[in-house]
Amino acid sequence: xxxxxxxxxxxxxxxxxxxxxxxxxxxxxxxxxxxxxxxxxxxxxxxxxxxxxxxxxxxxxxxxxxxxxxxxxxxxxxxxxxxxxxxxxxxxxxxxxxxxxxxxxxxxxxxxxxxxxxxxxxxxxxxxxxxxxxxxxxxxxxxxxxxxxxxxxxxxxxxxxxxxxxxxxxxxxxxxxxxxxxxxxxxxxxxxxxxxxxxxxxxxxxxxxxxxxxxxxxxxxxxxxxxxxxxxxxxxxxxxxxxxxxxxx
Length: 249
Description:
Shape: globular
Number of strands: 21
Structural class: mainly beta
Number of helices: 2
Largest sheet: 8 strands, antiparallel
Distance between the termini: 35 Å
């Protein structure tokens, strides 16, 4: 029998508003059929403003399709980067970028097999919606720069190392200091250092270390946009993609 997990518990509401005013934010969104007069909204001119709700618990699902469904719009004609994330606790499971218009739309995102394999606790699933991009001014080479970057990896297989396939999925990189963004994902091949994105002044290029090294020249880097990085040095895993795209979050 199909199961549906709906908003249940507010996790992050920040300066978001809601209508009607009574009850929790999650209560406002827990309708069975869409009611566009019952909604939550980001603050004006959002700069990486998050709303997060914990979903009602599920029973362990049988094999089959699993779909993330959200209903969204923007209220201003200006471009707005919107991001929808499915999390298990603090772990990122899936990330999608809806093409927002000023009319409400229902976006349905089937999970990939790799994403479904990351789910181990169906009682702690959450949905986070981010409006705009949160930035940092701590990197002289890129000021401002996104507080977080995200990279999607697919197709990597084991080679001389036996833990390569776990890199497949969405990797999140969060600003730490200067022009350095470490990930919560560690290298393959038994190395415990985190994967990371960093500006390398000696080479005048940006480098992404995910077990293999990818690079893009500083002159071609888009500080607040997508960047395609080319494979420079593969390691003990096989089938590294020729390029990876680093996107602001």
